[in-house]
């Protein structure tokens, strides 16, 4: 889990991270959708349902982190709680060990 949060913080500094559930949902509908979505373990049931259903519809992988909204917010450099983030660069998936070097899951 610590590796995930650290890598998400690096992605934010690189400008490859979308922060916040409303922004993630908006990005899923865009012409260039994110490559992976992560959400905190303590999000509300409606938020979790909205994120998982949108990711399923747009065929974007999603992962529930073992981190609270406060921990996720702190990891990506925000002072408040962050419910969800989305990666826009597939290169960070290799660092998270979610794909191999050839981009396969």
Protein architecture, described:
It is built from five helices and four strands; from the N terminus they run H-E-H-E-H-E-H-E-H. The chain has a single domain, classed as 60s Ribosomal Protein L30, Chain: A (2-Layer Sandwich), CATH 3.30.1330. The protein is of the alpha+beta class and 105 residues long. A four-stranded mixed sheet has the order 1-4-2-3, with helices on both faces. 30% of the residues are buried. It starts with a helix and ends in a 10-residue tail after the last helix. The radius of gyration is 13 Å and the shape is globular. The protein has helices spanning 2-13, 21-28, 45-58, 69-75, 91-95; strands at 17-19, 36-39, 62-64, 84-87. Helix 2 (21-28) runs parallel beside helix 3. The longest helix has 14 residues, at 45-58. Helix 3 links the parallel strand 2 and strand 3.
């Amino acid at each position: 889990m610590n590796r995930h949060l650290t890598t998400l913080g690096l992605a934010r500094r690189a400008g490859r991270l979308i922060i916040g559930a409303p922004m993630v949902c908006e990005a899923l509908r865009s012409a260039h959708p994110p490559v992976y979505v992560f959400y905190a373990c303590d999000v509300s049931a409606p938020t979790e349902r909205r994120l998982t259903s949108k990711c399923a519809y747009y065929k974007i992988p999603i992962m529930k982190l073992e981190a609270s909204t406060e921990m996720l917010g702190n990891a990506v450099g925000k002072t408040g709680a962050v419910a969800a983030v989305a990666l826009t660069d597939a290169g960070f998936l290799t660092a998270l060990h979610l794909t191999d070097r050839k981009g396969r899951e």
